[in-house]
Amino acid sequence: MPHVNTTIIIGAGIAGVHAAESLRNEGYQGQIMLMDRDSQMPYDRPPLSKEWMKEESDNANILLRNPAIYEKLDIDLKLGVEVTGIDSQRKTLDTKDGSSYEWEKIILATGTSLRTLALVGDDLRGIFYLRKMDDAVAIRDHMQHVKQAVIIGAGFIGAELASTLSEMGIDVTIVERSSYPMENIVGRQASAYFLDLHKRHGVQVITEDAVTQFHGEGKVEEAITAEGRRIPCQAVMIGVGVIPNTEVSVSQLEIDQGYVVNAYGETSVSDIYAAGDCTSWPYQGASIHIEHWDHAVNHAKTVAKNIIHPQSAPYTYTPYFWSDQYHVRFQYFGHAKEWSKTVLRGSAETDAFTIFYLDAQDIVQAAFLANQPKHALPARRLIQQQKPIDTQALADVNIALKKVPRLQGESNTSV
């Protein structure tokens, strides 16, 4: 028989660490094993593209927890351990080093991996992906002698890197395939603002083009695009998205853009849960997949509660993420794959505005905030209430957001 109440958490990133900590803080008395194939102490990834890259934060400051916390909470932290197989019938777990562990519950918190490109010359020195601490260390060391850098991909990681490198005095060029970066997430209006923001800070942004090869003698010296542009550079950062890590699996486990879980974090296999970026989870009647720090934390905490008290705490989280670029703090609440209209509150010219995304019934589905943190709470409430709203009042900066009239009409399924 397995150790009484043994829970094994696979992945010691944001979700895994918070799941382990929450289990103990919620009163879990059993054994907790926190495994990760990385050999470094669990650390926070977002600062790697911002404060840490500019040497405004040291290694100790980006650790998710002081190492002493794991011992204090009696969490068995197993680093440099790669899981190779799970037997859901015998309830055993095998690792690459030949060890085998028994379990009663498993939490899959395996996170995501970077999408990669296969380009001519991509083996030259000075070409990087940013995912792990080792990547960040290599980039920061290399940047000491870089004057020109190319960033492939204008997603949030690429945009944050562009902001960071530009503030370090490096000439930055972003190359993006689409006409408007992240338009499918934030819409044309916000996307155009992103482009203008970077251009105002001296970043060259090339859209509707793609890097196809690199030239250099041992190290990168030039990036060449499909349209024939030749961009001098001594460093290249590639940020073209991520994919969920779902290689740790069993045959009955349902996977669709991540491990599919219900409102309690349960997978399709009994006693196996999943949390964070590696999951697809129910939100407003649909199954969605997102990769946000805030989601990873809250999802992990909810899963921990449901392991202790099964199906006691449905996950009712409103998606949220943020991004810091130059002097602007961006915040995004909700989740809208499509919308019928947008409402602008404020002015993009002042770098302080909010864009609301509404459906055909004038119900707010999402909100994008630029330098307006005071709108965070009322915007989240508008999304959670799922009631039709007066759009003219919503756009009027003279009416407090919390006082914008709700209209009569049927609401959608609440979050």
Automatic annotation (TrEMBL):
This is NAD(P)/FAD-dependent oxidoreductase. It comes from the Bacteria. Keywords: FAD, Flavoprotein, Oxidoreductase. Residues 320-404 form the Reductase C-terminal domain. InterPro entries: FAD-oxidoreductase/Apoptosis, FAD/NAD-bd_sf, FAD/NAD-binding_dom, FAD/NAD-linked_Rdtase_dimer_sf, Reductase_C. It holds the Pfam family Pyr_redox_2. Its cofactor is FAD. Residues 7-300 form the FAD/NAD(P)-binding domain. It comes from Oceanobacillus locisalsi.
